[in-house]
Amino acid sequence: MSAGCAARSGGPxxxxxxxxxxxxxxxxxxxxxLSVAHGxxxxxxxxxxxxxxxxxxxxxxxxxxxxxxIRVLGLDPVADRDGVRQVVGAQLQASALPDKxxxxxxxxxxxxxxxxxADAGELVGALGLGAKRHAYYRSLSGxxxxxxxxxLALIGQPKVAVLDEMTTGLDPQxxxxxxxxxxxxxxRDVTILLVTHFMEEAQRLCDRVALIDRGxxxxxxxxxxxxxxxxxxxxxxxxxxxxxxxxxxxxxxEVTGVERNGSHVLVIxxxxxxxxxxxxxxxxxxxxxxxxxxxxxLEDAFMKLTARQ
Amino acid sequence: MTSHRPAERWQQAxxxxxxxxxxxxxxxxxxxxxxxxxxxxxAVLVVIFGELPKDQVRKSSLGGLTRFSVxxxxxxxxxxxxxxxxxxxxxxxxxxxxGILRRLAATPxxxxxVLAAQVVVNLVFALAGLLIxxxxxxxxxxxxxxxxxxxxxxxxxxxVAALFAIGLxxxxxxGSAAAAHGIGVALLLPxxxxxxxxxxxxxxxxxxxxxxxxxxxxxxxxAMQVAIQGTFPAAALLLTLxxxxxxxxxxxxxxxxxx
Lengths: 309, 259
Hints:
Chain A is of the alpha/beta class and 309 residues long. Chain A is 34% helix and 28% strand. Chain A has two domains: 3-221, P-loop containing nucleotide triphosphate hydrolases (Rossmann fold, 3-Layer(aba) Sandwich), CATH 3.40.50; 228-305, Alpha-Beta Plaits, CATH 3.30.70.100. Chain A is built from twelve helices and 13 strands. In chain A, strands 5-6-7-3-8-9 form a six-stranded mixed sheet, sandwiched between helices. Chain A has a four-stranded antiparallel sheet with strand order 11-12-10-13. In chain A, α6 runs parallel beside α7 (172-187). The longest helix of chain A is centred in the middle third of the chain and has 16 residues, at 172-187. With 259 residues, chain B is an all-alpha fold. Chain B has one domain. Helix content of chain B is 77%, strand content 2%. Chain B is built from eleven helices and two strands; from the N terminus they run ααββααααααααα. Chain B has helices at 6-30, 33-51, 67-87, 89-98, 100-105, 111-141, 149-173, 177-195, 206-214, 216-229, 235-255, and strands at 58-59, 65-66. In chain B, a hairpin with a 5-residue loop joins β1 (58-59) and β2 (65-66). In chain B, α3 packs across α10 (216-229), α7 (149-173) packs antiparallel against α10 and α10 (216-229) packs antiparallel against α11. The two termini of chain B are 34 Å apart. The A-B interface holds A 2-5, 60, 62, 82, 85-86, 88, 90, 92, 94-98, 100-101, 105-106, 108-110, 112-115, 152, 156 and B 1, 3-4, 9, 12, 15-16, 19-20, 23, 26-27, 30-31, 95, 98-100, 102-103, 105-109.
């Protein structure tokens, strides 16, 4: 089966089931299963040493799994080495390029590896490297190297791109530019597997996130739902204009809890929480003053799910 | 999507390897350590040895040969040794250290292409260096052409095989570019001693001669020396070189890691 047929079939873009990989006595990946749909930006999130990089290295076919099954567009990355590499672009951690090659020389080299390469000039322009075409790799800034790395990941017109820790080591400005870049890549109909340990990045970019800790998937959902399931999601804090009975709020389907702290009332819940609380209070003749809304974040979910006992 | 026949894949692999080779040649040209020490230095040494009057005197201790004609095969061995032990393994170890090979492993290209390209580039430089030594030695300083041309070619081929195998084993076992550099230089000095760069083999003690005969560069320079003087090199010398090629080739293949 050719990669093209697999891409058109209805299956997921990337499927990992019960992956296990150990280096000697160290179990890097214990049991990881995930399924990435076509066109998705799928995040793999976790603390250092959780097994994120090993997982994507197995997806790329750089390491054979000890157990489990991996399919990329229906192909086995180990058995069908060339087939998978023709359709998967990679941006790897801890990989450099020769210092004394020029940008255009490196791109020309990588372009020659693929059967249907992208237009180099267009890609270089889109990533803002046009002025650096004749510069040595050595002379590029961190952000420029990152962008060149993205060019190389996309030069084969891949259907799936694996981006490992793209923004680590970049300053906030370059990090934001890289995020815009990743969204541009998705707009090219490329399915993206994004490895990161930045919550903000996952929350901003990913359609779904797998939280990996100690070689296992501890949660897998959209960033919003992961965040919501942690602390009941939303919190409203206010000062009531008059006393009221907590019961009128706890009776609401949106509300999961009410706490009082001095003159402040904290209501925890989900959905259209603010509306429901304010309307109910108004019905009881109470005005909510100094209203503050606080959404729990993916970071809260991360801290809670990966907390060490 | 069109079907891709094996012939097309092969064509594309050839074109890709051509680009890898071109880039390795560019890199070797832009950081010309191997060219300076492996081609430039022997070319200078051949002129110095050729110009020294005392090196053009026939000496009985050298079996009636001049010091210059004894040093010529030693310089050829020097060219091969620099390319094999220094110019070849240092970039390969550095590519592994920097993750350049790992990055290539994630593409349809093979990291082994870089290894093959490095061998080709250094082989070409080694051939250029030894041609310069032979041609300058013969044209400017009257070195005689090898009487046994076949023996000379066989001696060079086996010397290259032995030394390049050792160089690839260094690339396989060194953990970093700095380590490859250190191992290469540390091996080069004793091996060049036994090749006769400082003391001609003929003037060594019997014990040192014995070690020299079984050292890679000693066997290499002696096999070339014998061929220049007109006889096909003894089987023992050629087998010594072949054994180095086999053992270190095996070690390199067994222990080479891409990351």
